């Protein structure tokens, strides 16, 4: 099918022309079949099961663009942030000029959350968990989606993340959103298609042949994906006794012949060390353009090593690299400047990294939460095919690809052949069956998807786990019992509240029937559901907040708490046996906290008071907290790497992870009604942690979120860290560290800030010349309104009584019991009503003047205070006997 025929389906000629340049003159067979035979542009769900490089992704892209042209919204779901970033950049490059609005929804791009919540987009690129969390804040936005493309559906089998993806897809099905599922490596796709209520488009043929084989003793024995006939190629033997020596010899031979090689290994250190060793054996042209791009970046261990290996066209790709370093490596490999790339499978397997030859290690590291230890395990058939699929890609050179396993014995050769070359793909294995239902129950209640035990049970009975696992093993009553148990844990944590049919609040006990009750998320429950925080982490955060509002907490204190949360999952942070047994980091922590109080029951104090060695994960959490303290102070990444034997990629990954939890902590503190100054300090800390900067740079980072850490630190080093100095700086000076767009934005903001300051100073001069004029006027003869700076502000009765009570004692703390009596008299109401009325009052007053945000203060455990001098308040009372 010629790509120009898309015009008959309503696709504009300008887009067709662009696709023609990028995709070629003709659609691939899979894409044509989706259009002609499977109603791609019509209604109904579709599951596309086809090998890598067969054009699956463009099938979803076609459907999303067609929906955008019809004024409908779509979401593209991906399993990894790195894949989402790559797809977002691709879609922006393709469609931004045309006017199709694309946003990215990941934890690292919170600035786009508002665009999703307000519907200001056409196509959203999101990771699965983020879309589920956004649905809590604005559940109606899911119903506005007309199409969801769910890529890499093998995620459903992931032991840690599969359950969340399953809950999200179940919800999309029930909302009636059209789903187009994509997968390359699922066995028995018919079962998944049946659950998705989807037509199954299955194709096993690749546009370009890919050979799968085993290299042993200089012979590469293989069979093709399209042509399963076995064949052999005679290669020179490496004459080594290890698989690594065979890989080195084979890669050198292939690279010398001008063929690209992608070598997958199981660990980050193997990728770095392997690239370093290969670079010594290869005599390839230098990757000059990549070296030049890397040389202007801040020094890190990975960057410095890459500058060496790139001298011979060799590189590595792993989580040790910073985002910009990875981007440079990926682009250089795609354009052929890097000919040999060592990579870890978890990060690179799904990336667009086409190669002629792919070498695959059949081992991987997995983490067992029961043992609290990592251990080696064989990769699955699906993982082997996914990694192998980087070869023989249609968007690469039009040549056949090779996937190579390396054996050192005849037994290993035969075992690898049977296990992977002739192996069968694993069917989808839904994980909700083995997961706790607590978080899913809270998500459903917080997003108003379910409000009763019966609705929750019905939802879980519609999941993939129910269809493929529970059916035949559990009856409805047993499933209801699991849901009821999860619901009880949510109630006990305070994340969910219950009410009876009359609307009265109730607190059911575990053995009480709850079938007639209605459930809703508490404010804190909505927060943790929207932030993706688990119940155990929620309890730990709330405990720390309650003990920290009235004390002088410090960064290491908060970082230790965050690093020890169950949700921190800092497995990427290395901690060697030597480091652990030396007890080095607990000792450093105790030295760093000398002089800090010890009595408060917080994590850092429990570890300081403990005389035995901490557990392994606790020691790793302490190490993380310590190196992030240096990160917060603006230390160079290379310095932190040296001090803690950790890579720059691991530092920034840990900072991102704990910044997410710090953000959740600040929002939770606000929802629970903690002191505004305390909440603000937590928000500032979150920004510092996200960027790795000191307090003074927080306003700049908040004003222009796209600024890099290096740019912010450079500004501080040059003394350009205030609005005054930025107002005087030239654009040429600022553009030494940032883009022209960012420099212009900073200058505009500096001009605005200086103008606001001059206006405030002018007001102060006016006020000082006539400081007897009251700012706040309250007249009991005109109840229901006040006057603020000569502006009338209408108020409801209770809000008026509250401001009047405080105005009678300006600058003094008015006790809670006095406030209560003045507003409600002898009526009995819940205590939190006072704080609720205060919030409602401030919302009304802040609309008149944002300055009110700081004028009514909560004095913890005492009362409220109006922060105005008595000369600025005029209260006119009714004469005695009136009112």
Describe the protein in words.
This protein has 883 residues and is an alpha/beta fold. It folds into five domains: 3-202, P-loop containing nucleotide triphosphate hydrolases (Rossmann fold); 210-421, P-loop containing nucleotide triphosphate hydrolases (Rossmann fold), CATH 3.40.50.300; 438-514, no CATH class; 535-692, Sec63 N-terminal domain-like fold (Orthogonal Bundle); 776-876, Winged helix-like DNA-binding domain superfamily/Winged helix DNA-binding domain (Arc Repressor Mutant, subunit A). It contains 39 helices and 27 strands. The strands form six sheets. It has an eight-stranded mixed β-sheet, with helices on both faces. The chain has a seven-stranded parallel β-sheet with strand order 3-4-2-5-6-1-7, with helices on both faces. The longest helix has 30 residues, at 740-769. It starts with 12 loop residues before the first helix and ends in a 7-residue tail after the last strand. The relative contact order is 0.06.
Features:
883 residues, Rossmann fold, 8-stranded mixed β-sheet, 7-stranded parallel β-sheet, single chain
């Amino acid at each position: 099918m010629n790509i120009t025929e898309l015009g008959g389906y309503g696709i504009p000629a300008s887009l067709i022309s662009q696709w023609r340049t990028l995709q070629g003159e003709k659609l691939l067979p899979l894409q044509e079949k989706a259009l002609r035979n499977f109603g791609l542009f019509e209604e109904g769900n579709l599951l596309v099961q086809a090998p890598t490089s067969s054009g699956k992704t463009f099938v979803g892209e076609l459907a999303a663009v067609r929906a955008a042209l019809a004024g409908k919204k779509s979401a593209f779901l991906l399993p990894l942030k790195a894949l989402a970033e790559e797809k977002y950049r691709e879609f922006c490059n393709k469609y931004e000029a045309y006017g199709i609005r694309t946003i990215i929804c990941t934890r690292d791009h919170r600035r786009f959350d508002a665009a999703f919540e307000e519907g200001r987009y056409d196509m959203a690129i999101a990771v699965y968990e983020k879309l589920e969390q956004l649905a809590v804040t604005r559940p109606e936005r899911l119903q506005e989606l007309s199409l969801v493309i769910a890529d890499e559906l093998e995620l459903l089998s992931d032991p840690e993340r599969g359950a969340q993806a399953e809950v999200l897809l179940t919800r999309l099905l029930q909302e009636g959103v059209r789903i187009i599922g994509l997968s390359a490596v699922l066995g028995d796709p018919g079962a998944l298609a049946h659950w998705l209520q989807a037509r199954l488009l299955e194709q096993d043929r690749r546009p370009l042949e890919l050979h799968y084989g085993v290299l042993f003793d200089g012979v590469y024995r293989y069979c093709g994906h399209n042509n399963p006939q076995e064949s052999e190629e005679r290669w020179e033997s490496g004459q080594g006794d290890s698989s690594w020596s065979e890989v080195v010899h084979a890669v050198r031979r292939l690279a010398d012949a001008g063929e690209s090689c992608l070598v997958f290994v199981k660990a980050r250190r193997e990728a770095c060390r392997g690239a370093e060793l290969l670079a010594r054996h290869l005599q390839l042209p230098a990757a000059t353009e990549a070296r030049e791009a890397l040389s202007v970046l801040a020094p890190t261990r990975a960057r410095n090593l890459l500058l060496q290996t790139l001298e011979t066209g060799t590189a590595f790709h792993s989580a040790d690299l910073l985002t910009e370093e990875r981007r440079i490596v990926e682009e250089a490999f795609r354009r052929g400047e890097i000919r040999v790339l060592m990579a870890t499978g978890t990060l690179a397997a799904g990336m667009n990294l086409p190669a002629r030859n792919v070498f695959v290690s059949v081992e991987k590291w997995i983490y067992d939460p029961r043992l609290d230890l990592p251990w080696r395990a064989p990769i699955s058939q699906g993982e082997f095919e996914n990694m192998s699929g980087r070869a023989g890609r249609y968007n690469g050179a039009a040549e056949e690809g090779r996937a190579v396993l390396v054996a050192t014995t005849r037994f290993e050769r035969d075992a690898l052949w049977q296990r992977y070359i002739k192996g069968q793909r694993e069917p989808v294995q839904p994980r909700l069956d083995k997961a706790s239902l607590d978080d899913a129950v809270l998500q459903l209640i917080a997003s108003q998807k379910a409000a009763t035990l019966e609705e929750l049970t019905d939802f879980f009975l519609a999941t993939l786990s129910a269809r493929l696992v529970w059916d035949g093993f559990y009856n409805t009553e047993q499933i209801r019992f699991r849901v009821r148990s999860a619901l009880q844990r949510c109630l006990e944590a305070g994340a969910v509240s219950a009410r009876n049919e009359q609307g009265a609040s109730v607190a059911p006990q575990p053995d009480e029937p709850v079938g007639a009750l209605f459930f809703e998320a508490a404010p804190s429950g909505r927060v943790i559901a929207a932030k993706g925080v688990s119940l155990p982490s929620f309890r730990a955060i709330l405990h720390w907040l309650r003990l920290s509002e009235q004390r002088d907490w410090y960064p290491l204190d908060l970082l230790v708490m965050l690093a020890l949360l169950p949700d921190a999952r800092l497995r990427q942070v290395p901690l060697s046996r030597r480091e652990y047994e030396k007890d080095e980091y607990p000792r450093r922590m105790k030295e760093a906290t000398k002089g800090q109080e010890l009595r408060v029951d917080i994590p850092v104090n429990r570890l300081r008071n403990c005389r035995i060695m901490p557990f392994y994960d606790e020691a790793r959490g302490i190490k993380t907290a310590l190196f992030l303290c240096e990160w917060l102070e603006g230390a160079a990444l290379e310095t932190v790497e040296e001090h803690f034997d950790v890579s720059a990629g691991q530092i920034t990954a840990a900072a991102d992870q704990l910044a997410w939890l710090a953000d959740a902590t600040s929002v939770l503190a606000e929802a629970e009604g903690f002191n505004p100054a305390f909440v603000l300090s937590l928000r500032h800390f979150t920004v510092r942690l996200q960027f790795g900067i000191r307090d003074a740079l927080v306003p700049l980072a908040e004003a222009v979120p796209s600024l890099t850490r290096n740019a912010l630190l450079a500004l501080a080093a040059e003394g350009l860290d205030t609005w005054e100095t930025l107002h005087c700086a030239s654009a040429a000076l600022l553009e030494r560290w940032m883009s022209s767009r960012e420099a212009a934005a900073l200058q505009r903001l500096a001009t605005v800030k200086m103008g606001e300051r001059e206006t405030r100073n002018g007001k102060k001069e006016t006020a000082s010349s006539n400081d007897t004029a009251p700012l706040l006027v309250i007249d009991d003869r005109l109840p229901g309104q006040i006057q603020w700076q000569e502006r009338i502000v209408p108020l409801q009765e209770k809000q008026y009584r509250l401001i009047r009570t405080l105005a009678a004692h300006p600058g003094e703390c008015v006790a809670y019991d006095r406030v209560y009596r003045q507003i409600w008299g002898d009526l009995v109401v819940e205590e939190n009503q006072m704080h609720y009325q205060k919030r409602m009052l401030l919302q009304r007053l802040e609309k008149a003047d944002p300055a009110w945000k700081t004028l009514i203060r909560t004095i913890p455990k005492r009362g409220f205070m109006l922060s105005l001098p008595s000369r600025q308040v005029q209260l006119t009372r009714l004469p005695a006997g009136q009112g």
